Amino acid sequence: FSGSGLARTPTGTSLSGGFGAPAKQLTTFATEDIKVLLLENVNKTGRDALERQGYQLEFLKASLSEDELCERIRQEEMDMSGSSSVIKHMQHRIYNLCRDFHVIGIRSKTKLNARVLREAKNLIAIGCFCIGTNQVDLKYAAQHGIAVFNSPFSNSRSVAELIIAEIVVLARQLGDRSMEMHQGTWNKVSNGCWEVRGKTLGIIGYGHIGSQLSVMAEMMGMSVIYYDVVNLMAMGSAKQVPTLDVLLSEADFVTCHVPELPETMNMIGAQQFEKMKKGSYLINASRGSVIDIPALIEASRAGKLAGAALDVYPAEPAGNGPFFNNELNKWGNDLRGLKNIILTPHIGGSTEEAQSAIGVEVSDALVRYVNEGVTIGAVNMPEVALRSLTMEEPNNVRVIFIHQNVPGVLRRVNEILSDHNVEKQMTDSRGDVAYLMADINNVSGRNLQELYDSLEILSCEYQRSI
Q1: Which helix (H) or strand (E) holds 79?
Q2: Closest to 160 measured CA to CA, from 341, 353, 324, 356
Q3: The whole model's pTM is what?
Q4: Which of 147, 430, 438, 458 has its Cβ near the most Cβ atoms within 10 Å?
Q5: Catalytic site residue 298?
């Protein structure tokens, strides 16, 4: 069970461990009472892992809009006066099936902003089955005791392989030649087509994807330079350059692998295109806000760029269909009309291998958090973990207390726990949010309710002070 000074998240007692043969785990509560909503066709590996816990699982292949999400998770009764029978039926179905989820799993399209999270009265965790978490209001989630997990590494190889493929396709103008052949035109040319061997690849952002890409590019005979805001050890013969301008001026191919931050907004714009080599290529599979698309269009038309490959865009459709048009992005038609331009629908991590690994990684993190309170891997909470409880410790209870990081809270919590033996305890903070985990023993059913009530009172006191 738990109290929380920032939220109202009911979790539970815990869990696994022991020496020799593993002891039977204590569970947090009736796991069949935990309700999970998975959107955007989360991989079967993730669904299976959650179902094995006995959770109630609602699965949808599509993403949901902000209004649809609020309907799915709202707990209040709907006012259906004046509705047609069909609308009433749909509203009843939405309300009855999806009104009080404890866990929501999404990928990159669904937006969980403050308005949506405010409706989620029972929500304790969000699983982002992807790398990015910018689609979630992380600050609001943390302040309301909702832990957010993602998969920062599992699709790195898939993205790196896509970039390698696009380098070759751009260098040989394969996209244009293929389109011409589909239209019945035979156009055998070599002008402006190149081998990639001996060319220089400039990587902006030398993280998990950038470093893997570096190794793969060198295996193809390319020279690699990279720019990052921190000093990082080079893989192979790659060299770090001191500024972005240096990279742009030396690279034949420039590829972006940076997060969406205020500092990376339109980091490649008109001025940066001017600094690039004439006839160079630009690739972006990071975030759509990184490239100034109108400036890219102008650079391509002016001959500064010989080609470009884009997998991400400032605005992306919520579902598959004929939606990538000027209504979505006003420059859509101009972008599609460029020569030697590869446009893909945010598929960098869309391989069977990557999605399977992501499903396992994120679902495992969610299970550890829901069942044990372990926050390892959370992007918006302190990372806290303790050895799990087992059936050999039947009167032990795990206390989880999420609170505002202000003086005096730990003293008050320890006063509440002082009538019991605290076997182990850990606390950590991250910004304004602090997370306490303690295992106490000799707790009866009556003690359990008293402890819960006392922590809830303390929770409300500090919630009002935010």
Answers
A1: none
A2: 353
A3: 0.79
A4: 147
A5: no
Which stretches does DSSP call E strand in 303-458?
A: 305-310, 341-343, 397-404, 421-430, 433-441
Residue 202 CA, distance from chain mean position: 26
Catalytic residue among 161, 218, 316, 450: 316
Cα separation, 195 vs 249, whole angstroms: 20
Token output for 371: 């069942």
What are the pLDDT digits (tens) for 53-94?
Answer: 999 999 987 676 667 667 666 543 344 344 444 434 433 433
Backbone angles phi, psi at 279, to 5 degrees: 85, 15
pLDDT in tens, 348-404: 999 999 999 999 999 999 999 999 999 999 999 999 999 887 777 677 888 999 988
Percent of the chain at pLDDT above 90? 66
346 is catalytic: yes
Which helix or strand (DSSP H or E) is residue 63 part of? Answer: none
- Provide the token pair at 204: 């902006």
- String of DSSP letters for 161-202: HHHHHHHHHHHTTHHHHHHHHHTT------TT---STT-EEE
Catalytic residue among 74, 144, 287, 403: 287
CB 66 within 8 A of CB 115: yes
Rg (CA), the chain: 26
Annotated catalytic residue, options 72, 74, 102, 346: 346
Q: Rounded to whole angstroms, how far apart are CA atoms 240 and 357?
A: 30
Q: How far apart are CA 110 and CA 37, in angstroms?
A: 12
Q: Which residues of 285-312 are buried (b: 16+ CB within 10 A; e: fewer)?
A: bbbbbbbbbebbbebbeeebbbbbbbbb
Is position 316 annotated as part of the catalytic site? Answer: yes
**Residue 28 CB coordination number (10 Å):** 22
The strand order across the sheet containing 253-256 reads: 239-240, 223-227, 200-204, 253-256, 280-284, 305-310, 341-343
Q: Which two tokens stand for residue 409?
A: 């809270």
Residue carrying structure tokens 């950590």: 428
Beta-sheet strand order (sheet of 397-404): 2-4, 397-404, 433-441, 421-430
Give the C-alpha separation, 386 to 112, whole Å: 30
Residue 458 and residue 416 in contact, taking contact as beta carbons nearer than 8 Å: yes
The residues that bridge with 159 in the sheet, in sequence order, are none
